[in-house]
Amino acid sequence: MCKTICNNLIFSLLAVVLLTACAGKPGEPRPPEIQYGQDMCSACGMLISEARFAAATLLTSGEARKFDDIGEMLVYHMDHPEEQVQAWFVHDYGSESWIRGESAFFVKSEAIKSPMGSGIVAFEKESDAKAFSAQVQGTIYSLDEIRGQVHMAVHG
Question: What is the pLDDT of residue 26?
Answer without folding.
Answer: 65
